[in-house]
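We include the entry.

. . .
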Amino acid sequence: MSTPAPFRSASPVHVVQLTDPHLFADPAGGLLGVNTRDTLRHVVQQVRREQAQIDLLLCTGDLSQDGSAASYAAFAELTDGLAPLSRWLPGNHDVPQVMAAVGQDTLIQAVTDIGAWRVLMLNSAVVGATHGLLAEDQLTLLDQALGDAGERHCLVCLHHQPVDIGCAWIAPIGLRNAEQLFAVLARHAQVRALLWGHIHQPWDEQRNGLRLLATPSTCIQFAAGSQDFQVSEESPGYRWLRLHDDGSIDTAVERAEDFVVTLDFDSPGY
């Protein structure tokens, strides 16, 4: 990977993250009685109302619940026009080959240089498993892309959580080789933040100068601090980020408060 050309400032870079929509081929498909296309539609409408400028849309996995081409096409249609650049990565419910076939080269790119930043999209999905693992090729890609980033600040994205978030039932389905990920990140001082999905709830902390961020699902939320599987009736949401030339980040989570979540525990769930 060659050293990138000098960047032209676009400060700040306006980013929106959407994660875990869990769409189905069937437009009526839902989880616990909640139609996942409806929730995504409400979140996207809120994004359009609140974000006057979006330079980059990051979609961090579980775009589909059933891995169908129709579900990925629906996601692309519902998010069409939000940003001039969109990037997808797979989660544990996704079928990467189908996702790539629908997204093609435009949406499935590991490295994106924009303004003073380099954004990396990693594949932590394990075929047939719920937990995550960064394969050796992903760790190598990460190390090389960070090493070749030049003066750019770096934002690293994946699906599975790499840290303990205080939910006992979620811990076993997180990233199994987080220590290898953090070992690579520690070699590159320009990494400013790590961003993920999967946990269906917000997370924001600083560790050794690294910002650790997660975001609510655009469908159903998991209850924070739960020991056993537990869902919440909090509204679906998204995260916005402002990536500044000096490496600082402004960010917050917004929720689609106009969507009333009513759960039906007699309906199919996860």
